[in-house]
Amino acid sequence: MSKRDLIIEKSIEILFERSIASTSIQDITNACGISKGAFYLSFKSKEELLIAIFEYLIQDMISKYQELINLQTEPKEKLRQYFVLSFKLFEKNYPFISTHARELINIVDKEVINNIQTQCKIADQITLLLLKDIYGSKIEESKYDLSICIRGMMKGYAEFIVLQKQSVDYYELSKFLVNRIDVLVHADLTPLITKEMYEQDPKNHVLIKKEDILDEITKCKEQYIDDSFITDTFELIMEELQKEHPRKAILLGMSSNLVTNNLNWLAILLKQYINNM
Amino acid sequence: MSKRDLIIEKSIEILFERSIASTSIQDITNACGISKGAFYLSFKSKEELLIAIFEYLIQDMISKYQELINLQTEPKEKLRQYFVLSFKLFEKNYPFISTHARELINIVDKEVINNIQTQCKIADQITLLLLKDIYGSKIEESKYDLSICIRGMMKGYAEFIVLQKQSVDYYELSKFLVNRIDVLVHADLTPLITKEMYEQDPKNHVLIKKEDILDEITKCKEQYIDDSFITDTFELIMEELQKEHPRKAILLGMSSNLVTNNLNWLAILLKQYINNM
DNA sequence: TATAATAATGACTAAAGAGTCAAAAGTCAA
DNA sequence: TTGACTTTTGACTCTTTAGTCATTATTATA
User: Fold this and answer.
1) Cβ(B173)–Cβ(B91) under 8 Å?
2) Which pLDDT value is given to residue B224?
3) pTM to 2 decimals?
């Protein structure tokens, strides 16, 4: 492990139960077994460490959700797996993020904060996607309320588990939650949160840029170097995106190519991009 | 307003968006327009201020919930009012408590923390009480799950409202939540959280002491000085509680006297005490 | 008005922590 | 083994802040 990562991980450990301001660099370097000077070889300042920690946690979260999305599983089972993963992430990352978010706001500049917030919304985006896979157009109107309630219930149980130090079987809990959602969906209540209300905040309406897709392809490419079908698909997408007026037909076709090869995450990015074209 | 209260209120304002450690006494006294010395006339230390702030917020919360409980309203409407109040309190007090709770733990000693945590559980206790009033024994088994889900959904919406700076009609939202709860109750799902799990943490099982009831009576007494029925009831409760073996019959009878006079809060304390006798 | 009592001030002390840098320790090719 | 190089160290500086206390301002009382 690099010294940088060591510092990040030890800091997360320490900051789990202390505030940023009340934790000195000395505390951190003591925990790492390194000197104060060594810290400043990896990080320019305390501020830089904080940003790095947030990026580290968010990256961890996103990559795990990506893996989940790329699994080939029946939609409801995927929702259950999503809950299980979310509970694990809540346990590991959420206390840190929620406790220190406010403090971070005072330390680092607005653009960094905005970036972090947008990335944090990824979990909600995924909730919406999974719900759509299961219930289709039936929940078109009520999906925002559902997403809020689901996230709330998840947090409710997560908090209960953490505070009571209860060991609850996450899979059982997830099955239970899926049942509750079923009940709520079939009750078909008049929704309260409309699309307009939900998307008023641009952070809830992630805008995928050309570069995001190209980056993602570059990341995946190597893995599929021997599969000419996939490399061709990648090639076609890249070509089409370079054009001034990319054709929806090509991109959508390629996106279903991706889905059949379990590159769901990339497919989602592409679909989002098409929607906003 | 006393200087002490001025300092507490200004501190809450400032600490809404800063951490405790990064806020100096000087910052606080500047905001109050007083000198540093004046601060130390009201508080022995920064630590004492923090404890005072938490006590202030919790007292505010409890007294408002008490008022609500003492209202004479149809149970479902009371649940709606409970939601409206909770949303207001979330908006006002919750961000402070959740952000600074962890930091407080490092500063003040365990006993103080424990005390604060127990008082914070009051909202959950009230949820359970109100649910019992509406649905009776039907939810005996599932009430713990319901309470967790309800709290979660409330928090979900509260967070949405705060983050999006949306102005949502709290009463409409509360009606919506009550409908959702109806749906969940009537679906009659197998519960996940059992009484044993819930009460494992003694904080979820508030033990009312003789003194709590006597204190509460002393507080109410003055208000009812002209009503001989109520003063007699008070007198009888106090007499009975002083005995080595207070008789349940008397106490339960007096508790229903209290309910008929809208002294619901005191009645609840008394019933809880009887239950644990 | 004069005096005593109380309240408020802010310069001061001592402690702690962020960030620096000259010197020490370690590495490795010749 | 040497010595040119990199990495690591921790004592040091400078800043900030909790808490004190001699002094000043205000109020109450005679």
Assistant:
1) no
2) 92
3) 0.88
